[in-house]
Specification:
The chain is an alpha+beta fold. The chain folds into three domains: about 10-95, 3-Layer(aba) Sandwich (Rossmann fold), CATH 3.40.50.20; about 120-180, ATP-grasp fold, A domain (Dna Ligase, domain 1, 2-Layer Sandwich); about 190-355, ATP-grasp fold, B domain (D-amino Acid Aminotransferase, Chain A, domain 1). The chain has eleven helices and 17 strands. Bound molecules: adenosine monophosphate (AMP). The site of adenosine monophosphate (AMP) has 14 residues, from strand 14. Adenosine monophosphate binds near residues 121, 144, 151, 183 and 212.
């Protein structure tokens, strides 16, 4: 792929904070961005050069969007594959619709990773109550039932402590197609954020230790503790294999548990990720810049740490009210996403560096 020259236009599907930070990185490299999203409050539109507020299904809108863009990317994976497929017939779309469609379906994602030799929790796809009963008999409890599609931040999932929870769990996820997963007694969670260029070159970041609260990422810390460091190599190799097999172009994030026998793959996102926000100040090249570099055919940037310790704290809901205190801290970098506050909403993050 020939490098897109500065002044080219990147189309971004999705209007959230990931699109917002992608647009900032693109602007720094001299690109224009155009956001397409149906959201009333599309915070990506605040930093993009132009914004079309429309749903993703109008052919007129998609034709116009494709003709205005030199490359198209997306900032969230819960988008219908159909408009992405349609766009990819008109303009290069990176990462490809294949990466997107595998990441959208928990069963496809896990079988894909198992086929590549990756370790996952024991799992089974269930589409009926009878299948759930059979899966619990095989996998045992404790277990987690997750909707096949459209889950995020711990939504669309429920724990089964014993087989007596089967009926309530099935009702709780709305009797929708799902997967049942064995509960992994992990010591830590971490992620591998990797970028793959159009020439097949790959770089990945040192893994953060990710701590969650109420199903939402609360904190990412680097360098990670030894438990994670010991599993880093194997997880990075698997993530690279996934990216290569998909022919992925752009950032790919895989989340892992530290398991007793090695890293346990949990899920992947074909995009920049919350657990990579620390890279804006904590790495030589941010995940956002590397994504833009990858999809524009530019060489990828260095992923090394810029400080001896880096910590990213998510600002959820009213946490963002602390902005004045955070600004008063030395070596704290505040990012606010321009959203209206709601409980549980990701309002911003702060990255603290220890030099
Ligand atoms: P997910 O939506 O798959 O990322 O799951 C959200 C969170 O639930 C994860 O970050 C873990 O903390 C927890 N979790 C998910 N799957 C499992 C599992 N199989 N065993 C133990 N904890 C899990």
């Amino acid at each position: 792929m020939k490098a897109l020259p500065p002044g080219s236009t990147i189309g971004i599907l999705g209007g959230g904070q990931l699109g917002r930070m992608l647009a900032i990185a693109a602007a720094q490299l001299g690109y224009n961005t155009r956001v397409l999203a149906p959201d009333e409050e599309a915070v990506a539109a605040q930093t993009a050069a132009s914004f079309t507020r429309a749903d993703y299904h109008s052919r007129i809108v998609l034709d116009e969007f494709a003709s205005a863009a030199d490359v198209v990317t997306y900032e969230f994976e819960n988008i219908d594959i159909e408009p992405v497929d349609y766009l990819s017939g008109k303009v290069p779309v990176h990462p490809s619709p294949t990466s997107l469609s595998i990441a959208q379906d928990r069963a496809d994602e896990k079988s894909f990773v198992n086929a590549l030799g990756g370790r996952t929790a024991a799992w089974a796809k269930v589409t009926t109550l009878a299948e759930l009963q059979a899966a619990v008999a095989t996998i045992g409890t404790p277990a987690i039932l997750k909707t096949l599609r459209l889950g995020y931040d711990g939504k669309g999932q429920v724990r089964l402590h014993t087989a007596a929870d089967i009926d309530t769990a099935w009702a709780a996820i709305g009797e929708r197609p799902a997967i049942l997963e064995a509960f992994i007694p992990f010591s830590h969670e971490f992620s591998i954020v990797l970028a793959r260029g159009s020439d097949g070159a790959m770089v990945s970041y040192p893994p953060p230790w990710n701590e969650h609260k109420d199903g939402i990422l609360a904190r990412s810390t680097l360098p990670a503790p030894p438990e994670i460091a010991r599993q880093w190599g194997e997880a990075a190799t698997l993530t690279g294999r996934i990216a290569e097999t998909l022919g992925h172009i752009g950032v790919l994030t895989c989340e892992y548990f530290v398991g007793a026998d090695g890293p346990v793959f949990n899920e992947m996102a074909p995009r920049v990720h919350n657990s990579g926000h620390w890279t804006i100040e904590g790495a030589v090249t941010s995940q956002f810049e590397n994504h833009i570099r990858a999809i524009c055919g530019l060489p990828l940037g260095d992923t090394g740490l810029t400080a001896s310790k880096v910590e990213m704290e998510n600002l959820i809901g009213k946490d963002a009210d602390r902005w004045a205190n955070i600004l008063a801290e030395r070596d704290a970098h505040l990012h606010l996403y321009g959203k209206t506050v709601r409980p549980g909403r990701k309002m911003g993050h702060v990255t603290r560096l220890v030099r």
